[in-house]
TrEMBL record, chain A:
GO terms for biological process: endocytosis; intracellular protein transport; Wnt signaling pathway. It is a peripheral membrane protein. The keyword Transport applies. Adaptor protein complex 2 (AP-2) is a heterotetramer composed of two large adaptins (alpha-type subunit and beta-type subunit), a medium adaptin (mu-type subunit) and a small adaptin (sigma-type subunit). It comes from Cyprinus carpio carpio. It comes from the Eukaryota. Gene3D superfamilies: 3.30.450.60, Mu homology domain, subdomain B. Keywords: Cell membrane, Coated pit, Endocytosis, Lipid-binding, Membrane, Protein transport, Transport. GO terms for molecular function: lipid binding. It is found in: Cell membrane; Membrane, Coated pit. This is Adaptor related protein complex 2 subunit mu 1a. A 1,2-diacyl-sn-glycero-3-phospho-(1D-myo-inositol-3,4,5-trisphosphate) binds at residues 347, 349, 351, 360, 362. Residues 170-440 form the MHD domain. GO terms for cellular component: clathrin adaptor complex; clathrin-coated pit; plasma membrane.
Automatic annotation (TrEMBL), chain B:
Residues 708-810 form the Clathrin adaptor alpha/beta/gamma-adaptin appendage Ig-like subdomain domain. It is found in: Endomembrane system. This is AP complex subunit beta. Belongs to the adaptor complexes large subunit family. The lineage of its organism: Eukaryota, Metazoa, Chordata, Craniata, Vertebrata. The keyword Lyase does not apply. GO terms for molecular function: clathrin binding. GO terms for biological process: animal organ development; intracellular protein transport; vesicle-mediated transport. It is a peripheral membrane protein. One of its GO terms (cellular component) is endomembrane system.
Length: 441, 812
């Protein structure tokens, strides 16, 4: 298991060092600094083996987190734990920075003592941790016996992510369907690969221990219902979404609150939600993706010192919808000496430091087209190596789900408290963003 | 509160100041002081001098202060064992506290203080905590048993904690179950043969129930433990698989990978004609693909594992090629791994797409990545015959770019393509020759020289080209020298008239002016061959070459099986067995896949079953170098006696010599073996060394059997092996190879129970009988033993060829 955990600043100075196992000595701290942080070349692997000691690291801004072990640990678990550790720290004191870590080092040691025992990760849900570890010192001195046992039963319990006795005057929940659409297109306009990775993020402010049921236009469910002709179809698309057609989900993963065995057998998503914001599920689709934009590049080399670039973007969605924060990034060669840009819409600028022309458009409606043309002057070079034309990348945000996913219902049942599904105020929002959206040129 | 100020104290005499503050009456001041101490400890300053003062702060009802003191204790108790005893009372008292959080904290911390005297006091509180009414305390106590076991295993056994721990598997709280499983698994690892975990259908059922309810981490512990279970039959195996598959939808990638491990392992037992088997295969693909949308570090772990899974069961991901396409912003380690998997998945169906991608990659910036991409194009040509032509033309395009490393890499792979498809693409040789001058890497130079030699008859100025290399002969690397020697001999055999001088020159350079025994050896072989029987020489040197394998860098099947059992772990990331990087007894047991149950297939070995009955198991070229981590690295013979191989630069050449060649050599037949070998040993007695005594080369070649035994040399120094010194040699008596050993005990205690094990080696050497050391070896005593060896063991090519690794574990 994990033998020790170190946190370093960008210079390689140790900010936090917690050793769990006897086989990890102080020299391990230095070994990582010398061999990885101070290494000359780029990091070639997130796992490094130095003198039979393995180091796993992740970097957040300029802070290094490293887990150390001498055993054959579960590597995936170590990384998941490091990410979780970052999440927990962010939940407690915001951004992970040297300043914040130094200011909270006592807290971090406390957390490390609680969420890793002898190198075995323990309950690391912030909701549960915050019940007894706080920034203002530890609660627990003046608690009643009931309170204490409530804490321990939550930390170890089956529903470790939610505490009992939550009360809201107004029961409310927010559902965000956040999708990032990824595309790799050839210069000829052929889709090389495209997929949507989506997340359903929920903010719940619900009293008691509500039982929730979530439904979407999953092809498998819709097909099954179609065949069976069931009459008691649960809540017909009450949360908006016209429910036109169903979508094929390649794969999905769920927050630990979802009963996986139930999903496996009935494909229904039921759970008791954590309080506040959390990620209910992630999913991936590859079929029938709506690609919100198409990029048509045209690059012409005029002699050895000039490039002509023309890029057309076309929006491909309902004219009534508006895309926002559109940014097209056209890479330029390293020996660029000057650029002239003409664009019909938005603003375009050549950024020498980034070796790219950045074209920004604030808003663009569906089924529209826009164009940019640029003349790039090049310095003559005797560099034999050709310029490795990086792809043209794009950023945007659209108010729909490119996968076609629709939320059909989210039902809330709380039998003990007297509020029903109808009393809960529900909000649904769809946001599609560009993931890695590239067109080769 | 800005605690960062504690990091900045660097004054002199601060220890004294701290001491005063620690002994202050004011609580706040005390706490501040302890914080400063912890901050100093973090940055690596030695604050152990403050031990008594800090421990004095322990008796407090301020929980925060208490935790800080505990942290200090864990760090320094070991260096001040006597002082640490002072803390015991507080611990014992805290273990009785009304607050379960404090009880747990005490037992957790106590287990981390690795002082023998303290552990004695730990037993009673621990026993109580294991039966505590509060699950939080029980789950902490469960882990504490593992801690205690790490300090004093005997104590844990004597106190019966292991049984209590086993009982916790039936606990009502899922987290207690998970931690108990984790602790038991860890303890079991250090007792490979104890039946500690004692998994039976009932406990498995309990674990599967807890699996649905516990935290994500607990699920990982349980799944990893499940993977070590061996189901009784395929029915049980299937029912476990059914209950594990829902985990594939978990958001935590480690849960997913551990579930994949269980499924991959138990699938082995399912009959292939079962419907469920197919369903399961289909279910595995989507979660594996999803792992690729995780953070880059996890993607890397996933890709390393997918690399194994693809080798074991290519059918799972054969349609998923696209997801492995490299993204421009992927970190380099992800790019390189993706490329590896792309080559493995390349097939006739997707080759067009793959080639287009590879071509794209070959223009990127990162040198390693570009090289790998170029090499991949060549691999595609060799793997998918239909694409060979396109690959070759792509490679030629790349050569035209004149980017130095691209050209060199392209030439190396084109050499392989020539070997795979003889007489097909030789028209490109002219283009290759144009780039002769730009080649500065040995591998590329050697490849080019090979090409020139192989096709000498079609290259008009072959002699000039080779001669140009000859000028700096002694500055070249061995690889190039050997290749040059062979190429010129080939040239001579093809065009004897005009190249006589050249061949003389190279032979004398190789035999007279070189210090390298390999080179000299090969020079002599050629020389003698050419001077005695040019016809035979032609037959040997220009013989038809064996086919090269389609796949490269395949992991050897037994290792692959073991790695499949370690999916998700470091072993699967390194592609090495745990014994190669883990010290001590942990992880040294070798895990194996279960045998397949079911009707007709029981006789079929599992790996043949996977690769499809039509394919013969491909010859494997180990890519990871030798498997390290053994006690000693023996050199079998003095270095002058390496086995000369005809074409060492071609990987397969050496393999074939060993596979087919040694058997016949040993049998005394001159005829069947490649003619070059006996000729070298017989004809050049100057270099015939240790090998001659080992393998009887038959009457004809003039070395009386068993005549010469090299004197014993020290193989293992005492200081490296806990006091056991071994020296030895190899001898041949009465037709049996024997290893003569002298064992000397240079330690203070008596040694008994000797055993020996040979690692896979180039010669297939294995002990023919057990090691006979009857008496215990007392200090400073030396005994001589002779161990008969057979050559029937498994053969694996080692680097260098005569490297033999022997594990020799004396249990003291």
């Amino acid at each position: 298991m994990i033998g020790g955990l170190f946190i370093y600043n960008h210079k390689g100075e140790v900010l936090i060092s917690r050793v769990y196992r006897d086989d990890i000595g102080r020299n391990a701290v230095d070994a990582f600094r010398v061999n990885v942080i101070h290494a000359r070349q780029q990091v070639r692997s997130p796992v490094t083996n130095i003198a039979r000691t393995s180091f796993f690291h992740v970097k957040r801004s300029n802070i290094w987190l490293a887990a150390v072990t001498k055993q054959n640990v579960n590597a995936a678990m170590v990384f998941e734990f490091l990410y979780k550790m970052c999440d927990v720290m962010t939940a407690y004191f915001g951004k992970i920075s040297e300043e914040n870590i130094k200011n909270n080092f006592v807290l971090i040691y406390e957390l490390l003592d609680e969420i890793l025992d002898f190198g075995y990760p323990q309950n690391s849900e912030t909701g549960a941790l915050k019940t007894f570890i706080t920034q203002q010192g530890i609660k627990g001195q003046h608690q009643t016996k009931e309170e204490q046992s409530q804490i321990t039963s939550q930390v170890t319990g089956q529903i470790g992510w939610r505490r009992e006795g939550i009360k809201y005057r107004r029961n409310e929940l927010f559902l965000d369907v956040l999708e990032s659409v990824n595309l790799l297109m050839s210069p000829q306009g052929q889709v090389l690969s495209a997929h949507v990775s989506g997340r359903v993020v929920m903010k719940s402010y619900l009293s008691g221990m509500p039982e929730c049921k979530f439904g979407m236009n999953d092809k498998i469910v819709i097909d099954k219902q179609g065949k069976g002709g069931t009459t008691d179809e649960p809540g017909k698309s009450e949360l908006g979404g016209s429910g036109k057609q169903s979508i094929a989900i390649d794969d999905c993963t769920f927050h630990q609150c979802v009963r996986l065995s139930k999903f496996d057998s009935e494909r229904s998503i039921s759970f008791i939600p954590p309080d506040g914001e959390y990620e209910l599920m992630r999913y991936r689709t590859t079929k029938d993706i709506i690609l919100p934009f198409r990029v048509i590049p045209l690059v012409r080399e005029v002699g050895r010192t000039k490039l002509e670039v023309k890029v057309v973007i076309k929006s491909n969605f309902k004219p009534s919808l508006l895309a926002q924060k559109i940014e097209v990034r056209i890479p330029t060669p390293l020996n660029t000496s000057g650029v002239q840009v003409i664009c019909m819409k938005g603003k375009a600028k050549y950024k020498a430091s980034e070796n790219a022309i950045v074209w920004k458009i604030k808003r663009m409606a569906g089924m529209k087209e826009s164009q940019i043309s640029a003349e790039i002057e090049l310095l003559p070079t005797n560099d034999k190596k050709k310029w490795a034309r990086p792809p043209i990348s794009m950023n945007f945000e659209v108010p729909f789900a490119p996968s076609g996913l629709k939320v059909r219902y989210l039902k809330v049942f709380e039998s003990k408290l007297n509020y029903s599904d109808h009393d809960v105020i529900k909000w649904v929002r769809y946001i599609g963003r560009s993931g890695i959206y590239e067109t080769r040129c | 509160m800005t605690d960062s100020k504690y990091f900045t104290t660097t004054k002199k005499g601060e220890i004294f100041e701290l001491k005063a503050e620690l002994n202050s009456d004011k609580k706040e001041k005390k706490k501040e002081a302890v914080k400063k101490v912890i901050a100093s400890m973090t940055v690596g300053k030695d604050v152990s001098a403050l031990f008594p003062d800090v421990v004095n702060c322990m008796q407090t009802d301020n929980l925060e202060l208490k935790k800080l003191v505990y942290l200090y204790l864990m760090n320094y108790a070991k260096s001040q064992p006597d002082m640490a005893i002072m803390a015991v009372n507080t611990f014992v008292k805290d273990c009785e506290d009304l607050n379960p959080l404090i009880r747990a904290l005490a037992v957790r911390t106590m287990g981390c203080i690795r002082v023998d005297k303290i552990t004695e006091y730990l037993c009673e509180p621990l026993r109580k905590c294991l039966k505590d009414e509060d699950p939080y305390v029980r789950k902490t106590a469960a882990v504490c048993v593992a801690k205690l076991h790490d300090i004093n295993a005997q104590l844990v056994e004597d106190q019966g904690f292991l049984d209590t721990l086993k009982d916790l598997i039936s606990d009502s709280n899922p987290m207690v179950v998970a931690n108990a499983v984790a602790a038991l698994s860890e303890i079991a690892e250090s007792h490979p043969n104890s039946n500690l975990l004692d998994l039976n259908p009932q406990t498995i059922n309990k674990l599967l129930t807890a699996l649905n309810e516990c935290t994500e981490w607990g699920q990982i512990f349980i799944l990893d433990c499940l993977a070590s279970y061996l189901p009784r039959d395929d029915r049980e195996s299937q029912s476990i698989c059914e209950r594990v598959t829902p985990r594939l939808s978990h958001a935590n990638s480690a849960v997913v990978l551990s579930a994949v491990k269980v499924l991959m392992k138990f699938m082995e037992m399912l009959p292939k004609d079962l419907d469920y088997y197919g369903t399961l295969l289909k279910k595995l693909a989507p979660p594996l693909v999803t792992l690729l949308s995780a953070e880059p570090e996890l993607q890397y772990v996933a890709l390393r594992n997918i690399n194994l899974i693809v080798q074991k069961r290519p059918e799972i991901l054969k349609h998923e090629m696209k997801v492995f396409f490299v993204k421009y912003n992927d970190p380099i380690y992800v790019k390189l791994e993706k490329l590896d998997i792309m080559i493995r998945l390349a097939s006739q169906a997707n080759i067009a797409q793959v080639l287009a991608e590879l071509k794209e990659y070959a223009t990127e910036v990162d040198v390693d990545f570009v090289r790998k991409a170029v090499r991949a194009i060549g691999r595609c040509a060799i793997k998918v015959e239909q694409s060979a032509e396109r690959c070759v033309s792509t490679l030629l395009d790349l050569i035209q770019t004149k980017v130095n490393y691209v050209v060199q890499e392209a030439i190396v792979v084109i050499k392989d393509i020539f070997r795979k498809y003889p007489n097909k693409y030789e028209s490109v040789i002219a283009t290759l020759c144009e780039n002769l001058d730009s080649l500065d890497e040995p591998e590329a130079r050697a490849a080019m020289i090979w090409i020139v030699g192989e096709y000498a008859e079609r290259i008009d100025n072959a002699d000039e080209l080779l001669e140009s290399f000859l000028e700096g002969f002694h500055d070249e690397s061995t690889q190039v020298q050997l290749q040059l020697l062979t190429a010129i001999v080939k040239l001579f055999l093809k065009k004897p008239t005009e190249t006589q001088e050249l061949v003389q020159q190279v032979l004398s350079l190789a035999t007279q002016d070189s210090d390298n025994p390999d080179l000299r050896d090969r020079g002599y072989i050629y020389w003698r061959l050419l001077s005695t029987d040019p016809v035979a020489a032609k037959e040997v040197v220009l013989a038809e070459k064996p086919l090269i394998s389609e796949e490269t860098d395949l992991i050897e099947p037994t290792l692959l099986e073991e790695l499949i059992c370690h999916i998700g772990t470091l072993a699967s990331v390194y592609h090495k067995p745990p014994s190669a990087f883990v010290e001590g007894s942990r992880g040294v047991q070798h895990k194996r896949l279960p045998p397949r149950a079911g009707s007709g297939e029981s006789t079929e070995s599992p790996d043949v079953g996977q690769s499809g009955p039509s394919e013969a198991p491909p010859a494997v070229i180990p890519s990871q170098g030798d498997l390290l981590g053994d006690l000693l690295n023996l050199d079998l013979a003095p270095p002058t006696a390496t086995v000369p191989s005809v074409q060492p630069s071609m990987q397969m050449g050496a393999m074939d010599l060993l596979g087919g060649g040694l058997d016949s050599l040993m049998g005394a037949g001159l005829g069947a073996a490649p003619a070059a070998m006996p000729a070298s040993l017989g004809g050049a007695p100057a270099v015939g060394g240790g090998l001659g005594d080992l393998f009887d080369l038959g009457g004809g070649v003039g070395m009386p059997t068993g005549s010469y035994v090299a004197p014993k040399t020290v193989w293992l120094l005492a200081m490296k092996a806990k006091g056991l010194e071994i020296s030895g040699t190899f001898a041949r008596r009465g037709g049996i190879i024997q290893m003569d050993l002298s064992l000397t005990n240079k330690a203070m205690s008596v040694m008994t129970d000797f055993a020996i094990q040979f690692n896979r080696n180039s010669f297939g050497l294995a002990p023919a009988g057990p090691l006979q050391v009857l008496t215990p070896l007392s200090p400073n005593q030396t005994i001589d033993v002779s161990l008969p060896l057979s050559t029937s063991g498994p053969v694996m090519k080692m680097e260098p060829l005569n490297n033999l690794q022997v594990i020799y574990p004396p249990t003291k």
